[in-house]
């Protein structure tokens, strides 16, 4: 993990005034002077950590290996990503602007904010307001294309009135799922895929969780509801990489004319949208809107072929969340291990805790308890496998 940034107010102000290149993902905004509040800092681009993907520092942040393409994207477009450490703001804000120097094309700066209940907003392009003020933000720099490079990024946080439509309830859509496979390959967040792995891929990095986290978790269920799995989003794909179809048109990155919840690949395959092509010009061969790791596909949902599934994009909702510290964890039909398994909750997944009941005593990695958390209708997990809860305290059922 990279080290936290220090505030560089006077020097950074001069950098912002004299910037030769335009801001990444933002409008220039008003001039910045030495009177700018302390919500101004510089990104430490030279510190590369374990959660960074295919980037290196050599006088500028660049692609480390131009032949390395995230396997799940299945497209010949090299990319890299530097994820900076969370940054505590001096005063709460809901907008981060980014200013770059000596940046080429293919440089994007994105950020997210941590709310009071310790949940993260979706990754948002710099220059776009969040729905609410936050006290902590995290920034990432994404490079696309072998020649992409940037030597400096200056960041300014402020408050702006957020546009309508940013606040969303928990969204659930029926989409077509394909099996990712690709054991031994590397995902967009740097995870090396293992046999029967438990993660998913979505066609937009806005919901991409950093490696080893479940900050963005989906609940994916068979259409009958008989089997479900809660799994982190660790890859980008299939087909597209800028299709956050679960968002409304006001915030959807691409293909804003499509109905919310309809992936571009589905529209291209079913009705010839975009000439039947994806964003890379490939003929879309199936309507997939989600890729499932083999463990989710075979074990969690017990699928035997690609299939339609119901997906909940849990970060678009709110409420109490429990982090699964050791999994895949059986989801039971009742508060005991003798009840039928209804699927799995993967390690790192953040599951919604509706309420809790008293049931069988279970000794798990986080103690011995009779508490069982209800995470959906007829779905229970032992609280002894929950490493952390956020968003308040769950009531008794």
Topology as a string of helices (H) and strands (E): HEEEEEEEEEEEEEEEHEHEEEEEEEEE
Strand % is: 35-45%
Q: Kindly identify the CATH topology of the largest domain.
A: Jelly Rolls
Q: Report Rg.
A: 21 Å
Q: Spans of 5+ residues with little confidence (pLDDT < 50)?
A: 1-36, 162-169
Strand arrangement across the biggest beta sheet: 12-16-13-15-14-17
Separate helix tally: 3
Instruction: Please count the beta strands (DSSP E, at least 2 residues each).
Output: 25
Report the average pLDDT across residues.
Answer: 86
- The helicity comes to under 10%
CATH architecture of the largest domain: Sandwich
CATH top level assignment of the largest domain: Mainly Beta
User: How far from one another are the termini?
Assistant: 40 Å
For the biggest sheet, the summary is: 6 strands, mixed, barrel
Question: Helix- and strand-based class?
Answer: mainly beta
Give a verbal description of the structure.
With 397 residues, this protein is mainly beta. The protein has three domains: 9-158, Jelly Rolls (Sandwich); 171-316, RlpA-like domain (Barwin-like endoglucanases); 321-390, Roll (SH3 type barrels). Helix content is 6%, strand content 36%. It has three helices and 25 strands. It has helices at residues 9-17, 264-271, 294-300, and strands spanning 40-42, 55-57, 61-63, 79-83, 87-93, 95-101, 107-114, 124-125, 134-144, 149-150, 152-158, 171-179, 200-202, 217-222, 228-236, 288-292, 307-313, 321-324, 329-332, 341-345, 350-352, 355-364, 367-376, 379-382, 386-390. The strands form six sheets. It has a six-stranded mixed barrel. Strands 4, 5, 7, 8 and 9 form a five-stranded antiparallel β-sheet that branches. A hairpin with a 2-residue loop joins strand 23 (367-376) and strand 24 (379-382). Residues 1-36 and 162-169 have low confidence and may be disordered.
